[in-house]
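hi!! sorry for the late reply, been swamped w classes. u asked for the two structures so here they r. pasted raw, havent cleaned anything up. first the sequence of the first protein and right below it the tokens
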Amino acid sequence: MTCWRNEASLKTDPKPSTCVDAETFAADVALEGPPEVEFNPGIAGRIPAKGSAGGALVRDRNGHVLFVTPRYKPFLYIPGGIADANESPKAACQREVAEEIGIELRLGSLLVVDWVPQNGVWRDSHQFVSDGGVLTPEQVTALRTHDDELDGMKFLSLDAAAPHIHPSLYRRLQLAIEAAETGRTVYAEFGRAL
């Protein structure tokens, strides 16, 4: 499934980004009825906002996980990133994967939804991890970073990556690997399944 950014004006954000096909999405929006208005002026601006991000669990044939090395942080991350305004986490993940490693990845099942508390300047968020599949040796060889924000990428076992990733990401990826094996999506909070 291909994600897209709608160029037509809808009653929601004029250009939402979603993985639902455009015709179905437009029909669904129309069925919702007229745009909601604030019953109490200014209330929408006072409701806390949560961030969301989409990441891909991409593995090689040995079960090693693909990590990217950002230039702006001292930790490894999985391919993906923060969703833009009115962009779905899956669309954000597909966009970021294409930007970061230059491949159009067909994301599989949602593996983990993980709530992460506020950390410094970063508000609390929902982190979505989707199955990015297992790459062939030819696909692995062809991988290149395509983003100025990255120094590189590497496949590592989760244990080898542990000293180079946040403990919460380690826990989230443990859950994602288990979910990929069992076919069961996991809800977690700070990497702890609930």
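now the second protein. again sequence first, tokens right under
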Amino acid sequence: MNPWFLSGSILMIIVGVVHSVFGERLIFSRLRAGGLIPTDGGSHLLERHVRILWATWHLSSVLGWAAAFILLYASNAAVPALVIDALVVAAAAGGMLVLVGTHGKHPGWIALLIVALLVWYG
């Protein structure tokens, strides 16, 4: 078993859960007009824009869970190096995007860069 891949997998699952839960509570709860999918963008966003922001928000969590599943599998089985390298680059690039985009004020960059380091080291 590769404990580095397993640790990266667990952290990526946690990041996805925290991302979706906090996004719902801190952002999308204010944009809901009563339904599951938020639609109220106020005077700045059209309904379709709010819908795609919501979908894209959760898409990133789902893709993170897919990466976590691949890492979980890789912790117990041989996986091509290209797959692992792609996950390292994706986590590192995602972390850098969050770091630069939020001027380091959003903690997601730390978790994503830790995932990248764990997987790279593994």
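hope this helps!! also noticed smth abt the second:
The chain has one domain: 3-121.
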